[in-house]
Amino acid sequence: MNSITSKNERLAPPASEAVEIAAYFDRLFPLLRSLTGAGVRQSLDILGELVDLDRLEIPSGTKVFDWTVPREWVVREAYLEGPDGRRIIDMRDNNLHLLNYSTGFRGEVSRAELDEHLHSRADMPDAIPYVTSYYAPRWGFCLPHRMREALPEGRYRVTIDADHIDGAMSLGEAVLKGETAEEVLLTSYICHPSMANDELSGPLALALLYRRIASWPKRRLTYRFVLHPETIGSIAYLSLRGKHLAENCVAGFNISNTATTTPFRYKRSRCGNSLADRTAERVLRERWPHMHDVSDFDPIGSDERQYCSPGFDLPYGALSRRPDHFPEYHTSLDNREFVSFDALSEAVDAYEAICRRVDDSVRYRSLSPYGEPQLGQRGLYHTIGRAGPPEAMTQALLWVLNLSDGDHDLEAIAQRSGISYALIAEAAQRAEQAGLLARAGEAPAR
Ligand code: ZN
Q1: Is-contact 161 103, C-beta < 8 A?
Q2: pTM of the entire structure?
Q3: Angle between helices 410-417 and 421-433 (to 10 degrees)
Q4: pLDDT of res. 388
Q5: pLDDT tens digits, one per residue of 67-81
Q6: CA geometry: angle at 126 spanning 123 and 130, to 5°?
Q7: Distance CA 22, CA 37 (A)
Q8: Ligand 1 centroid distance, CA of 126 (Å)
Q9: For residue 52, which of 177, 140, 142, 172 has the smallest C-alpha distance?
Q10: Low-confidence ranges of the chain (pLDDT < 70)
Q11: How many angstroms is it from 329 CA to the middle of ligand 1?
């Protein structure tokens, strides 16, 4: 690492994170993911090279709250042969050609009968749409609308060699312990096949974020990383860990749609003013002032629907850089050419910066709450009375000492005082060193 290199020696260019992302992307993109099955396990294996993932396998048929874990999807091959015997659609060309979670089917059908099993989008005539049928058994193919319209009359031979078996749904989980049991929850979903922004950019960003946080010299908080299929996966995860999360989670984020150069979008948690919300908003405002927007919670979208369901109401927001206008969404056009790995890496910067700030944002309790402590005798206050408002550091100290009641974290004090976070954090450090503050209510990690 620290060897001296002569100036004449050619140095290898630093391996950028984007180059590394590209290599992982190319291995993960072709896998057939769904709610369950081999493609999810293979994806977790590959991401397991970056994240120390524990695998959770939840058996098919397991009741999770109001839902049931579906059977495992096994697909061997799927193709369609036209009237002239030529293979016109083959899943090997693109996973999206097969209706996701399709039942198996072998047989000959007429053009009209076939059409009932075809899915295309007239508004995106050159794209293969991503269509799923998780909860109603049917077979089907997806194809560009232009191709569908050109299919001639005649007999078509369908081969979909697929089964639904009693197996399991696979989830991945990793925990980086900190000094305290309070946790930050970071999740992404892993159930879409062969689409780049939604979804592969999510699990990739989560994996890189794991590696960065694992390398921090110290962590106050504990970090929990979870990869699961969307909706049923987060519901199943909550059935296992919901009680623990309700007791320990202080901030959480859904990580998805990270790889476009469009502005960051933060969607607040249900409670709307959690540490996660306040921190994400401030960090984005400071670091990406003209490249972000913030919206209120709504129960439409991704796994925030589950993590923010009223029984859990976790402080869990959603940060993405999903574009406003995203016609490629859920089609074959959301591919490698559509995304930027540098943008993905920048998104990891944002998640990391927010996590760092959450980690720093301690709640203190004043050890001298009865009247203002005398700052002058501790060297914290100018000792010559003078006209005008107190200097900025003194103001910050007064705010910190007043609001350190065990409930306000530093981010909340910065917000309420209107003073920069950096100054509030420095004032808190000085007050702690002077013996005026103690950390409040943090259970040590178990
Ligand atoms: Zn999606």
Answers
A1: no
A2: 0.93
A3: 120
A4: 64
A5: 999 999 999 999 999
A6: 75
A7: 24
A8: 19
A9: 172
A10: 1-15, 382-389, 446
A11: 8
